From TrEMBL:
Organism expressing this protein natively: Haliea salexigens
Protein's name in the database: Penicillin-binding protein
Domain of life: Bacteria
Lineage: Bacteria, Pseudomonadati, Pseudomonadota, Gammaproteobacteria, Cellvibrionales
Assigned keywords, A-Z: Signal
Range of residues in the leader sequence: 1-24
């Protein structure tokens, strides 16, 4: 008899449990963000030109990493391969300065070498 008295509770409790398992979202999830694809052809050509004109450097290898996309470009020139191990030391200074100067020259970049990076 006890089962019969409480059986009517099972359907409302089941409904509450199912609603509790729902995320409550009526809208579909947002589509994944479409990240830009970059063309580094001109950059690669300039690196090759630099290497061809240099009597000091035998090779260049470069990897560009984006915080969201991960590795966005890898290239190797001359006697370097993508597996060539180099000591970083000061080797990153020249490409970083080249990048900063390119950003400075690009009016759409919103970057100026005359402005402080942080206050």
């Amino acid at each position: 008899m006890l089962e019969l008295k409480h059986r009517w509770l099972s359907l409302p409790l089941l409904a509450v449990a199912l609603v509790g398992c729902s995320d409550g979202a009526d809208t579909p999830p947002s589509p994944p963000e479409i990240l830009p694809a970059y063309d580094f052809t001109a950059v690669d050509q300039r690196f090759q030109q630099f290497l061809d004109e240099s009597s000091v450097f035998d090779g260049i290898s470069v990897t560009l990493v984006d915080q969201r996309q991960g590795t966005v470009h890898e290239a190797a020139f001359g006697d370097h391969s993508l597996e060539t191990v180099v000591m970083l030391a000061s080797t990153s200074k020249v490409p970083v300065v080249m990048l900063l100067m390119a950003l400075n020259d690009d009016p759409d970049a919103g970057f100026s070498v005359d402005e402080p990076i942080a206050s």
